[in-house]
Specification:
single chain, 408 residues, alpha+beta, Creatine Amidinohydrolase, Chain A, domain 1, Creatine Amidinohydrolase, 2 domains, six-stranded mixed beta sheet, 19 strands, 34% helix
């Protein structure tokens, strides 16, 4: 959570932090509570408040953040800096960073975060280090200050995640109604004009409803049928007609305006389902229900993956534990955290080094599944759940699990 940042800085022996880049970076959105600021800087001395360096055109949005503000155009005019350094843009930008850090009181070891081109950042940091001896800019890898802080959510963030879940489920319901509003002919779903209804048609409808509810998708969504449903991240062939009796994996992960994600998956089979799909779905639903009954604060996340592998292996399926690298059976980790990124901590895997315990503030997906592209199907069930600050389980996905979707 945000109040952990000073502690996390101290644990890493960092005296402060600097976030660079446009406002679509998760660290920038996190500290500005969802604001978008072009070319902004966020600076924080350990134990002090956060400073936002922003453009004058965004001064109203900056004021709404409640952060300490420095107008960039007033204090660090770009044209004057270029003039001072005879048009040397790298030196001008390095001077901008150095002077902003000085104004915010940053000294010592400073963690560097944000989104910018890797090569540009490397050159810029090197030039800043040449200019300022009192500052050491430090990069983190993996479990960064922000990765750890963002892994647990406060109740305000949880409210945004609940809103995302409500809107996502509303869209999924309308997609199901849209599909069911069509007739079928010769095992294919038909539009009113007599042409086949395609996956592309369904995706276009989904996007139209998504925008209606003020949501967006940064990574598209998955609507994959038949063999394609057997490859977990196959997004589906837009030209493929919707057919009866084939499994459809519908994995939907949109964001609300504040940038928080929802992530849910339902497996559908239109009209009827084959015996093989029914069996795989029933097994997946059984382990899903067992997992959710066991979810509790203080339990190791890797234990849930072990539980899932035990179950699927007992049913004769390959898993990532029994057959590492398998492309059929249970082929992925059980789940992950969600928030301002679609994949955050904690991870539900049996990877070496995963010693994470479920904590208050964790918001996670649980998504067991079975994949058999060679047999023409895949199934997955996924809900998002949270543990609030009191450690109570809060369900974020509220949508039926029905496998067979009746058609006319």
């Amino acid at each position: 959570m945000k109040h952990d940042i000073d502690r996390l800085l101290a644990e890493r022996k960092l005296d402060g932090l600097l976030v660079m880049g446009n406002g679509h970076g998760s660290a920038m959105r996190y500290l500005t509570s969802g604001g978008f600021f072009e070319g902004a800087l966020l600076l924080k001395k350990r134990g002090d408040e956060t400073t936002l360096v922003h453009g004058l055109m965004e001064r109203d949005s900056a004021q709404a953040t409640g952060l300490r503000l420095i107008p960039r155009d007033t204090h660090f005019n770009h044209y004057k800096l270029l003039q001072e350094f005879d048009g040397d843009r790298l030196s001008a930008d390095a001077a901008y960073l150095a002077r902003a850090m000085e104004m915010a009181g940053l000294r010592g070891r400073i963690g560097l975060y944000g989104l910018t081109d890797a090569g540009s950042a490397l050159a810029l940091v090197a030039r800043v280090q040449e200019m300022v001896e009192a500052i050491e800019l430090v990069g983190e890898y993996g479990e960064t200050v922000f990765a750890q802080a963002m892994e647990t959510k406060d109740n305000g963030e949880l409210a945004e995640l609940q809103r995302a879940g409500e809107s996502a489920c509303r869209v999924v319901a309308e997609v199901q109604e849209f599909i069911q509003s069509h007739r079928t002919r010769n095992e294919v779903v038909i539009r009113a004009d007599g042409e086949v209804l395609t996956i592309g048609d369904v995706k276009n409808f989904t996007r139209s409803r998504l925008y209606t509810y003020g949501m967006a998708e940064d990574h598209g969504h998955i609507f994959a049928q038949g063999r394609d449903a057997g490859v977990p991240h196959n997004h589906g062939d837009p030209a493929m007609p919707l057919r009866l009796g084939q499994s459809i994996v519908f994995d939907f992960y949109p964001t609300v305006e504040s940038g928080y994600y929802h992530d849910m998956t339902r497996t559908w089979s239109l009209g009827y389902a084959t015996d093989a799909v029914v069996e795989a779905w029933e097994q997946t639903k059984e382990i899903f229900d067992r997992l959710m009954a066991e979810m509790a604060v203080g339990r190791p996340t890797r234990g849930y993956q072990t539980m899932t592998c035990d179950y699927y292996e007992s049913k004769g399926h390959k898993t990532t534990r029994s057959h590492p690298g398998t492309e059929e059976g249970y082929v992925h980790g059980l789940g992950h955290g969600i928030g301002l990124e679609i994949h955050e901590g904690p991870r539900f895997s049996h990877a070496v080094g995963n010693n994470t315990l479920v904590q208050p503030g964790h918001v996670v997906t649980i998504e067991p599944g079975l994949y058999y592209p060679s047999r023409g199907f895949g199934v997955r069930i996924e809900d998002a759940v949270a543990f609030n600050e009191a450690g109570e389980l809060v369900w974020l996905t509220h949508y039926p699990y029905d496998l067979v979707i009746p058609m006319r």
